[in-house]
Amino acid sequence: MPDRTFEILEAVVAEFIRTGEAVSSAGLFGRYDFGIRPAMIRSELQELTDAGFLEQLYHSAGRVPSDKAYQFFVEKVIERTKSDAHPTEKIRISFRNADWNDFSEALASHLGLLCVVDDVREEAVYKEGLDNLVRRLDWDSPEEIKQVIRDFEELDNRVSDFAKGFVNEDGLDVFIGRRSPVTKSGQLAVVAANCESDDGNLVILGIGPKWMDYKKVIGTFKSFQNVG
């Protein structure tokens, strides 16, 4: 993908995460300097739409990111984002003390997500923040509500199965929509990190809407990978 095209795609995703509203060429022109006029930005947006990175609900509407766009975006965020050296004191202390109830609660509050901690050695799952998930999602249909409820009910078993095999080069991955191994709702995204504590191996997950603040979540999770 050409650099300018990626810059425009990145801006669309960032703006949608920031505002929750469809993004137009005029809006991008007003906030970003791509070195081109609105008509050229509009042409780039159409090419990104044709390539499956953006979606347009109707002809005169702005664009919203597709799952393909989010996945492309978060891969770049993982590459660029450094660990957050300043998690809250409660997060730091509970991590060092291996108090996973307090840790999951503090993490959920800090990130505004449903957070899950799997203590692999103890085969125990801790989760907090369902209210964050309920508050932040767009409920378009009763079936979507039912799917999120089913996901929550099945979360312990799915996370345990996932944690046993979660090993990759970076120890951190992001799953968008139905690509997630622990949720089935198309509205959700999952950030997962593998890390070590003094008490053993952990898998930490942040579950939230696809328009979550990925930089904050990934930076926070990377800080735990540097602690163990």
TrEMBL record:
**What protein name is recorded for this chain?**
Heat-inducible transcription repressor HrcA C-terminal domain-containing protein
Location of the Heat-inducible transcription repressor HrcA C-terminal domain:
70-218
Q: Which residues cross the membrane?
A: none
**According to the lineage, what is the superkingdom?**
Bacteria
UniProt xrefs under InterPro entries: GAF-like_dom_sf (IPR029016), HrcA (IPR002571), HrcA_C (IPR021153), WH-like_DNA-bd_sf (IPR036388), WH_DNA-bd_sf (IPR036390)
User: What processes in GO biological process is this protein linked to?
Assistant: negative regulation of DNA-templated transcription
Pfam families recorded:
HrcA
Species annotation: Candidatus Liptonbacteria bacterium GWB1_49_6
Q: Does the keyword Repressor apply?
A: yes
Q: Which UniProt keywords apply?
A: Repressor, Stress response, Transcription, Transcription regulation
Return one GO MF term: DNA binding
Organism taxonomic ancestry = Bacteria, Candidatus Liptoniibacteriota
